[in-house]
Design goal:
The complex is a heterodimer. By secondary structure, chain A is mainly α. Chain A has two domains: 13-109, Fumarate Reductase Iron-sulfur Protein, Chain B, domain 2, CATH 1.10.1060.10; 115-162, no CATH class. Chain A has eleven helices and no strands. Chain A is elongated, with a radius of gyration of 20 Å. The relative contact order of chain A is 0.12. Chain B is α/β, with parallel strands linked by helices. Chain B has three domains: 2-131, no CATH class; 134-306, FAD/NAD(P)-binding domain; 444-606, no CATH class. Chain B contains 16 helices and 30 strands. In chain B, the strands form eleven sheets. A five-stranded parallel β-sheet of chain B has the order 10-17-11-12-13. In chain B, helix 5 (214-228) crosses helix 6 and helix 12 (474-483) crosses helix 15 (569-584). Classes of the chains: A mainly alpha, B alpha/beta. The A-B interface holds A 34, 36-45, 48-49, 52, 55, 57-58, 87-89, 91-93 and B 141, 143, 189, 193-195, 197-200, 205-206, 239-240, 265-269, 282-284, 286, 289-291.
């Protein structure tokens, strides 16, 4: 058998059969076991349309198989744009956007957070927004007759501290 | 149909509606409204001269709206009787200024606008319900574009388009440009296998069951197309092909061999390309895990089945019940598949569940034979377990008649209730309801039950669990546990009743007065009650007992309730283990205090919960594991209560 074929064979012996229960116990992940892989979600997904990295049916299937390491360590659960198209259409009411949140929550508990999200949190702490407010932004606002804004960093920091988002997540 | 119309022993009443049914097995009285068709059906030769002059043009429902008909029309070519009919709502009327053209056109003078509806009273011995089903309407599934794209059609519309009797006389064309489509896609499971949920509360997006016929219908359609037009490219998008019947797998294989492509994965998006007239589909081929795009000229939605919309009317007319999917319920899913809970009423075809022609014919033959057996018997035998009213004790309150699921008790104000033995099924819920002990259930008398309770509690009452088990499910479930040799505590003593609805609150009260530590009431699951809905009365009585016990300072947890089917031996063993755990915690002191508290006290018969008129905030409390959770409780929608933590049914509504 060629090496390529070898890689396509999934060895289930190391999988975690309780991973599905772990997700089902997480708010939003309750309905994961209902999925019967019709793929209505993926076929209508705007993210899956532009990148094959994100495929909700495949993620659910991997989670049901117990591929804990692969699911948590990959960034695909973070790619969901939460547009709720699949939520509306899923015939089994799996509630996929909420399921993705559940998977992210399990990943965060394990300390697995993609670098982009860490950077976003750092930006929030630094500027109170996802971007820095400079003279340019306020000039543009003035053109449209909008009042200038200031960075309200302290409030956002307090909020972040309050909900437990750490300095270095 | 022609044979039926001609048969000397069959009276066919087309264009008629059943208004009312009364009576009981062997003696039904049926009132039928024969609607005025404004055409003398015995004279009309269906020449069609009338329709040619009728100025009103309407969509033809038989042709799925793909053709038109007039206000005077024949419903479909093979209709029996073969006679025209006037739709009075559409007709301009027999007014010389407005119209009346058809009357002039009819040489035989069959048209009579003075015809009136006629009510016909029939005496019948048996009734077969074969009211059929409806087809799912895919309008709500906007991702498939049924209402926005002309060339997305349903399997019913496809059927008309390819039928020689259809609007195109069998020349298969697509609706938009009337050209023959070369590439055809089929989407399976449209409206089927879709759970009801918050976003789909009424099944607009589909129903949870498999509709049974759509897979084979698509396979048949694909073969028809390949026969008529071998160059057609056919792609079927599916998630499971269920080809389970005789010869079905063969057909599936033939279809594949003829080049029909089967792709596992349902489309997520269907878009029309206005420039080319193509229909563009996005689908994930789950075999490869890759997103694919397909172009077809015509897309057929293989729509599922739904209960016919008048099912509830039929149910009310005949006191039948419906299963969770909305179809009519049979008396027993395995052993009485064509009988209904009402004696003398049988069911056939898609009124009972979605099924194909062969299964419908099988079930109809069986139903006819069952009815025949009944009608040919000079007398019918009733089981010797029916209810008997003692006229001396009856206080004419009518409570028994109100709870009888079979309407077998005849009662009018200031009259002694009378049981129609032929209609009585023997559940005993009337005897349990009667506050004056005026009803005797033969072979399940109050005296017999009290004697059993006495015997059970005679020695070592503290170690016993007193369990009421219904004949059909719980008692059979205990049997299953036994034959499967499941281990469970053996200190339960079972009292068998035909239905849990026979368990009179007095029995439970008496058992506690006599020193029982635990009492269990068990019956069939809610949807499976063998007496339509008699076990709903069980819940009401247990709710009242819980409230009464609590009032007198007795722990209501000592009365347990559970639903256990005949197959659930495992569940029975689990119930026994759990209830035994609770029994072990009951002390001799507690039992003694209970006996003192309940001595001479009246049996509670009413519950606050059952007096609720509107949904109210409440807490559900599991009396097995102690779990509690808040709900907005609606008595109307009170189905089988179950604890999400321990899955027991001993769940009380605390207001």
């Amino acid at each position: 058998m060629s090496k390529e074929n070898d890689e396509q064979i999934i060895d289930v012996s190391g999988f975690d059969p309780h991973f599905r229960d772990e997700i089902a116990a997480e708010p939003g992940g309750e309905h994961i076991r209902r999925c019967y892989s019709c793929s209505t979600c993926t076929a209508g997904c705007p993210v899956a349309g532009v990148t094959d990295k994100y495929n909700p049916r495949r993620i659910i299937h991997m989670a049901l198989l117990g591929m804990r390491e692969q699911v948590l360590n990959s960034d695909f659960a973070w790619l969901c744009s939460v547009c709720y198209t699949c939520y509306e259409r899923c015939p089994q009411d799996v509630r996929i956007p909420e399921l993705m949140t559940a998977i992210r929550n399990v990943a965060v508990r394990e300390g697995i957070i993609p670098a982009t999200f860490k950077l976003q949190v750092a930006k929030l702490r630094e500027h109170g927004r996802l971007y820095e407010i400079e003279a340019f932004e306020n000039e543009r606002r003035a053109d449209y007759g909008l009042p200038p804004i200031e960075e309200e960093t302290e409030e956002v920091r307090t909020l972040l501290d309050h909900v437990g988002v750490k300095e270095e997540p | 149909m022609m044979d039926v119309g001609r048969h000397p022993n069959i009276e066919l009443m087309a264009y008629s509606e059943v208004e009312d049914i009364s009576g009981y097995v062997g003696n039904f009285k049926v009132h039928v409204r024969k609607k005025a068709r404004y055409v003398d059906a015995t004279e009309c030769t269906a020449c069609g001269d009338c329709a040619k002059v009728c100025p009103i043009v309407m969509p033809d429902a038989f042709q799925a709206g793909l053709a038109t008909r007039r206000a005077i029309y024949i419903p479909f070519p093979q209709a029996v009787p073969s006679a025209y009919i006037v739709n009075a709502d559409e007709c301009l009327g027999n007014n010389p200024i407005a119209c009346g053209k058809c009357i002039q056109a009819c040489d035989k003078g069959c048209i009579d606008f003075d015809m009136l509806d006629e009510i016909v009273a029939l005496d019948v011995g048996a009734i077969i319900v074969a009211t059929g089903m409806d087809v799912y309407d895919p309008t709500a599934l906007d991702e498939y574009g049924y209402t926005s794209i002309v060339d997305v059609i349903t399997s019913m519309e496809f059927e008309r388009l390819i039928s020689a009797g259809g609007p195109t006389e069998g020349h298969f064309v697509r609706p938009s440009d009337r050209t023959r489509p070369k590439r055809i896609g089929f989407v399976q499971c449209v409206g089927s296998r879709t759970l009801h949920s918050e976003k789909n509360p009424d099944g607009a997006r589909g129903n949870p069951y498999c509709s049974n016929i759509c897979c084979m219908n698509t396979i048949k359609d694909s073969l028809l197309l390949k026969d008529h037009y071998p160059d057609t490219e056919i792609t079927v998008f599916y998630m499971d092909i269920r080809a389970f019947g005789k010869g079905f797998e063969d057909l599936y294989m033939t279809s594949k061999a003829k080049g029909v492509r089967y792709i596992r994965g349902l489309p997520g998006e269907v878009v029309a390309d206005d420039a080319t007239g193509n229909i563009h589909l996005y689908v994930e081929n789950t075999a490869t895990g890759l997103l694919e795009e397909h172009d077809v000229d015509l897309l057929v939605l293989s729509v599922g089945t739904v209960p016919c919309k008048e099912t509830d009317l039929v149910r009310q007319l005949l006191t039948l019940s419906r299963t969770g999917d909305g179809f009519l319920m049979e008396a027993h899913p395995k052993l009485k598949p064509v009988d209904t809970p009402t004696k003398g009423v049988y069911v056939a075809g898609c009124a009972e569940s979605p099924k194909d022609i062969k299964d419908s014919v099988t079930q109809a033959s069986a139903a006819a034979a069952r009815a025949e057996i009944l009608l040919n018997a000079p007398k019918i035998k009733v089981e010797a377990i029916t209810a008997v009213v003692d006229p001396d004790l009856c206080k004419m309150c009518g409570q028994c008649a109100a709870v009888c699921p079979f309407s077998a008790i005849l009662w009018e104000k200031k009259q002694v209730a009378r049981v129609v033995s032929a209609a009585c099924a023997g559940c005993g819920t009337c005897a349990a309801e009667c506050p004056f002990d005026a009803i005797t259930m033969r072979h399940f008398t109050d005296q017999q039950v009290y004697a059993m309770i006495d015997a059970i509690l005679e020695t070592n009452p503290l170690e016993k669990i007193l369990a009421f088990a219904c004949n059909w499910c719980s008692y059979a479930g205990a049997d299953t546990a036994g034959t499967a040799r499941l281990q469970y505590p053996a200190n339960a003593r079972l009292i068998r009743t035909m239905c849990s609805g026979r368990v009179k609150p007095d029995f439970v009260w008496y058992a506690f007065q006599k020193g029982a530590p635990m009492v269990l009431v068990s019956g069939c699951h809610f949807a499976d009650c063998h007496y339509i809905n008699a076990n709903r009365q069980t819940v009401r009585r247990v709710d009242a007992l819980w409230e009464g016990l609590e009032q007198h300072g007795v722990r209501p947890e000592r009365l347990q309730i559970d639903w256990c089917s005949a197959a659930e031996g495992q569940k029975w063993a689990r119930i026994m283990r759990e209830v035994e755990e609770l029994r072990a915690a009951v002390t001799p002191d507690e039992v003694e205090r209970t006996q003192e508290a309940l001595a001479g006290k009246k049996v509670p018969r009413t519950s606050q919960v059952w007096r609720l008129k509107a949904p109210a905030p409440a807490t559900l409390a599991c009396y097995r594991c102690g779990h509690t959770w808040p709900v907005t409780f609606n008595l109307e929608e009170d189905k089988e209560r179950m604890c999400p933590a321990c899955r027991s049914n001993s769940v009380r509504v605390v207001l």
